[in-house]
Amino acid sequence: MEISWRRVEEQDFPLLRRWLQQPHVKRWWNHETTVEAVARDFGPAARGEEPSEDLLAFLEGRPVGLVQRSRLCDYPDYAAALAAIVHVPDGAMTIDYLIGDPRQTGQGIGTAMLHSVIVRTWAEHPAASCILVPVVAANQPSWRALERAGLRRVGVGDLEPDNPVDDRTHYLYRADRPRTGG
């Protein structure tokens, strides 16, 4: 399954809005979906004003998902919250992700997307030491996709959930930069 990528642009906001309104996305992202909210929350990264990267994933030329990728050092409060649960090494990055169309869930696309973005992260961010991903413990499809993509669970702890209906318990997953050479 070949996944291709490009940065989110303002022309993508209607698509992101539709995805965020899907029940399977809304359940875990709990994001405002007004035109203004989507522009407010995705505009700075699209314009390069925010250090995070919003990336659209494509399968056979069609958009299938979103990955938000960032260096934890750019978000010290978030890094500190994770560091209360696991060691956060220098150069650590994090991702968040979604599959937009509910008909494309449960087909391995999420796993392929995660694997692809991790490989790209090592190539595009040479200082990245690892990727740490917190996921609400109740979101089994999400953490199973992380496991299938090769991440390992390294911690369990309390973090503020995206959706206030969720318990604070999160699993933390980690992928380390592959070693090179002998």
Describe the structure.
By secondary structure, this protein is α+β, with helices and mostly antiparallel strands. The protein has a single domain (3-176), classed as Aminopeptidase. It is built from 6 helices and 7 strands; from the N terminus they run E-H-H-H-E-E-H-E-H-E-H-E-E. It has helices at residues 13-21, 23-29, 35-46, 76-83, 109-124, 140-148, and strands spanning 3-7, 53-59, 62-71, 93-99, 130-136, 152-158, 169-176. The strands form 2 sheets. Strands 1-2-3-4 form a 4-stranded antiparallel sheet. Strand 2 and strand 3 form a beta hairpin. Helix 1 (13-21) packs across helix 3 (35-46). The longest helix is centred in the middle third of the chain and has 16 residues, at 109-124. The chain is globular and about 40 Å long. InterPro entries: Acyl_CoA_acyltransferase, GNAT_dom. This is N-acetyltransferase domain-containing protein. Pfam families: Acetyltransf_8. Keywords: Antibiotic resistance.
Quick gist of this model?
This is N-acetyltransferase domain-containing protein. It is built from 6 helices and 7 strands.
Beta-strand fraction estimate: 25-35%
Distance between the termini: 30 Å
The strand order across the widest sheet is 1-2-3-4
Radius of gyration: 16 Å
Overall structural class, as computed from helix and strand content, comes to: alpha+beta
The fourth-level CATH homologous superfamily is Gcn5-related N-acetyltransferase (GNAT)
Q: What does the largest sheet look like?
A: 4 strands, antiparallel
Q: Kindly state the mean pLDDT as a whole number?
A: 94
Overall outline: globular
**CATH topology type:** Aminopeptidase
Q: Which segments are poorly predicted (pLDDT under 50) over 5 or more consecutive residues? A: none
CATH class: Alpha Beta
Protein name: N-acetyltransferase domain-containing protein
Domain N-acetyltransferase: 3-178
InterPro entries: Acyl_CoA_acyltransferase, GNAT_dom
Pfam family, one: Acetyltransf_8
